[in-house]
UniProtKB/TrEMBL annotation:
UniProt keyword Transmembrane helix, yes or no: yes
UniProt-recorded name of the protein: Sulfate transporter family-domain-containing protein
Gene Ontology biological-process annotations: transmembrane transport
UniProt organism field: Lasiosphaeria ovina
Localization per record: Membrane
Region (Disordered): 1-80, 100-135
Domain STAS: residue ranges: 659-791
Transmembrane region(s): 210-228, 240-260, 291-313, 325-344, 377-396, 408-429, 506-525, 546-565, 602-630
Compositionally biased intervals (Polar residues): 21-36, 108-119
SUPFAM superfamilies: SpoIIaa-like
Pfam families hit by this protein: STAS, Sulfate_transp
Parts forming coiled coils: none
């Protein structure tokens, strides 16, 4: 005993040693002297604890008004009326809650949470929490069912309410609270946007929609002919079908009013690869237009079915599966392949290439053929193609520079003008007799327009199996481009009631391609280029897509005979412009990745580009998709556990691997943070990573090193599981094995920042026996600092450690 007189206890020391000197009141705390009164307070109150380790609040009624969102927001009788930091702003106006009972209520989800008590109170508080929550849930169910029965009178409305989803039921309660009529038409309008914009459409929109549709038709209808004839190797009219049927269906179901769907260069080229591979296997001939059209319908139908099913299954996140380097590398490779393919008809070497069998070779083989036959180039054909390409590129650059100052230049259909002039000149100067190939008679392969052909017949199963992988990539690329276009065009929409939804976009695009596939059209998805032209020329509503369908139908019915003399070199030059646009963004991405030294992304781009050029498009596609999925799997299966260290002088903990010099470690304790859900994907190496942390104190050390941490440094292991928001069966089993192994080695286990007692994570840990293995509920606390205090208490109580 010291003879020195003890100083008077300070305000902080009168409570427990961690209580602040000037408490803010924002978080309630209690000291050791108040532990005895907690049980009495719990018997007086109806407030259950918030977690299996938390006691009821020991707060005076007049000290802290209720912060719970589950109770009424009106002041209690006898409570102070002056404003404090707890006074709710706009309490009456924004009170959207159902009040279960009158009076104060502090057992809601966001009630003030006290710190964890001692181990003696865990079991009682947990039992009280379970009983209270069990009684609370039926009361909520009864409340919702009562509201539903009052708001839906009549058996028809009751039956409709039973068919509603969980979100719809919640929306019904909210709608009734705010005086909004809850009807089936409101939900149907969400899934059928045509019911929204058709009611709000006015003639003031029609002029802009008509001009926009006419401009898009003048620019992209000739492009559809080029894509079908030059890339997909199907009758040109099948390219026009995709501008008749697909925009019409998308206008009824799509959630982006300004977007125009149509055939794309990448999808058309992939259709051509399917046709070429079918011919190479001996299942058809190069001149079998009927088979080519059927294959086009099968590919479009498969792609549409995949997209549609993905939308129904709510897989709208699929546009994030493929990385940006993969997409840029693959699209650039497609641009190179298209440019090389179009050089052959632009130089007038088509017949010679067909005789030598070069058409089905790789891009390198085609380049070797071109350079070896430069003496056979047809001068007039090359002149027509080169002139058309230069004119279109010059007009494109002029429009790009003038459009910010003169927006009206966007209305100039330069490609349509080039097509019309080339047709007139070919007819006037008789280019066909001079050796220039012309489009010829445009007709359907079956001899009849819009012939219905179901793509999923049993007789087509062989072709369906062969086209599955290519159709999947068409669906993935098409949805990705449509998603980018929709997100870019979603602003400034004319109809506030239409909300962009990736899942509904999948359904709309899938339905459009399924309908088009029944008439053997090319796969069609949203394109940013033509959609931007549509909006910049006045198109604001889906009516522009409907008008585009009507204009294309008029072209099919009345204008096709006038396209007989359309020179094929002009069509090839239109495709070459598209190829240029696919390649021109690649240098920017390469320079960006070089600047940030992203060697992995650059390597992926180069592998896809070179494999496509030197081998084939299918091989490059397989390599790219395989490497991308390997990256995704590698990223998702790597555990991201961290060892934590304490910031000196505080109770805060940070990642010790990122700041090892300014953190302190607790002797005899290893604090491990698990910042992610534990699933079968990322628990495979969890034991190995934990063992590395035990041996070296970091996961960055090479396993060849000898042990660096002493054995007694791991006498206590604290798991911070705040990030474990979900847990599956495999993750639970691995976690149970880890805890069991530690306990057999005499290591004490503590879990901090535990999940809620009604969560699936807590139930799985309870059923699997993890809680019992760890030492009971006493070893599950609210924060790391409290877990450290519990390790000290238990060490003092152990024999030989007093």
């Amino acid at each position: 005993m010291s003879s020195r007189q003890n100083p008077p206890p300070s305000r902080a020391s009168q409570g427990h040693e961690h209580a602040p000197t000037n408490p803010s009141g924002l978080r309630q705390s209690y000291n050791a002297s108040s532990y005895a009164s907690l049980g009495e307070a719990a018997s007086r109150r109806d407030s259950p604890p918030l977690s299996p380790t938390s006691p009821p609040l020991n707060v005076h009624d007049d000290a802290v008004p209720s912060l719970a969102l589950a109770g009424p927001s009106t002041p209690r009788r006898g409570a102070p009326t002056h404003a404090t930091e707890f006074t709710a702003l706009l309490s009456g106006e924004l009170d959207f809650r159902e009040h279960v009972h009158d009076g104060p209520c502090n057992h809601g989800t966001f009630s003030p949470r006290p710190t964890s008590p001692t181990a003696s109170l865990h079991a009682d508080s947990h039992a009280q929490s379970d009983s209270e929550s069990d009684s609370f849930i039926p009361s909520m169910d009864g409340m919702l069912s009562g509201l539903s029965s009052n708001s839906h009178k009549g058996w028809k409305k009751q039956w409709t309410s039973r068919m509603k989803s969980k979100k719809m039921s919640t929306s019904s309660v909210l709608a009734e609270r705010h005086g909004i009529k809850d009807s089936g038409l409101m939900y149907l309008s969400y899934y059928l946007p045509v019911l929204v914009w058709a009611r709000e459409y006015s003639w003031s929109y029609f002029k802009g929609d008509f001009v926009a549709a006419l401009t898009v038709a003048g620019m992209y209808v000739p492009m559809a002919l080029s894509l079908a004839d030059s890339l997909a190797h199907v009758p040109p009219i099948n390219g026009l079908y995709s501008f008749v049927l697909n925009p019409l269906v998308y206008a009824l179901l799509g959630s982006c009013p300004a977007m125009i769907v149509g055939p794309e260069a990448a999808g058309s080229l992939l259709v051509g690869t399917v046709i070429k591979s079918t011919v190479d296997r001996g299942n058809g001939d190069d001149d079998d237009a009927v088979l080519h059209a059927q294959l086009c319908g099968i590919v479009a139908g498969m792609a549409g079915a995949m997209v549609f099913v993905a939308g129904v299954a709510r897989l709208g996140f699929m546009d994030s599966v493929l990385s940006r380097p993969f997409l840029r590398g693959f699209i650039s490779a497609i641009g190179v392949v298209i440019a090389v393919d179009q050089l052959i008809p632009e130089l007038g070497l088509s017949r010679l290439a067909e005789a030598n069998g070069v058409g089905h070779g790789s891009s390198v083989e085609k380049l070797r053929f071109i350079f070896g036959n430069l003496d056979h180039v047809h001068a007039l054909t090359f002149g027509v193609a080169c002139t058309s390409f230069v004119v279109i590129m010059v007009c494109r650059e002029i429009k790009r520079r003038l459009q910010p100052r003169y927006p009206g230049v966007a209305y100039v259909p330069d490609r349509f003008i080039v097509v019309v002039l080339s047709v007139v000149m070919a007819y006037w100067f008789e280019w066909e007799k001079a050796g220039v190939a012309v489009l010829g008679k445009v007709e359907a392969a079956s001899g009849h327009l819009f012939t219905f052909q179901w793509p999923f017949k049993l007789s087509n199963m062989t072709h369906i199996r062969d086209a599955t992988s290519t159709s999947f990539l068409i669906a993935l690329l098409g949805f990705f481009e449509s998603s980018v276009a929709a997100k870019s065009l979603n602003g400034n929409t004319a109809f506030a009631g239409i909300q962009l939804s990736p899942n509904r976009e999948l359904v709309a695009l899938g339905a459009a391609n399924l309908v088009g596939a029944c008439f053997m059209s090319l796969p069609a998805f949203g394109g940013y280029g033509r959609s931007k032209v549509n909006r910049s020329t006045g198109g604001k509503t889906p009516m522009s897509s409907i008008i585009l369908s009507i204009l294309t139908l008029i072209c099919i019915l009345f204008l096709l005979p006038y396209l007989y003399y359309l020179p094929k070199p002009v069509l090839s030059s239109l495709i070459s412009v598209v190829a240029w646009s696919l390649i021109e963004e690649c240098p920017h991405d390469i320079s960006f990745f070089l600047r940030i030294r992203a060697w992995q992304e650059l390597g992926l781009m180069m592998v896809i580009l070179l494999s496509t050029i030197f081998f084939s498009l299918s091989f490059g596609m397989a390599i790219g998709v395989g490497l991308s999925f390997l990256q995704v799997i590698r990223h998702s299966t790597r555990p991201r556990i961290q060892i934590l260290g304490r910031i000196p002088g505080t109770n805060r903990f940070e990642n010790a691997e990122s700041n090892p010099d300014r953190l302190e470690f607790i002797e005899g304790c290893l604090i491990v943070k698990i910042p992610e859900p534990l699933t079968f994907a990322n628990t495979g190496e969890l034991k190995t990573r934990l063992r590395r942390l035990e041996l070296y104190g970091t996961s960055l050390a090479h396993p060849a090193l000898p042990r660096l941490r002493r054995e007694d440094s791991n006498h206590n292991i604290i798991f911070d599981i705040h990030g474990v928001t979900s847990l599956d069966g495999s993750g639970t089993q691995v976690l149970e094995e880890i805890v069991k192994d530690y306990r057999e080695r005499g290591v004490r286990i503590f879990f901090s920042r535990i999940p809620a007692p009604d969560s699936d994570v807590w139930r799985l840990m309870e059923r699997s026996g993890i809680i019992e293995l760890a030492g009971g509920r006493d070893h599950f606390v609210d924060d790391v600092h409290e877990a450290l205090k519990m390790t000290e208490v238990q060490e003092i109580g152990e024999p030989g450690r007093a």
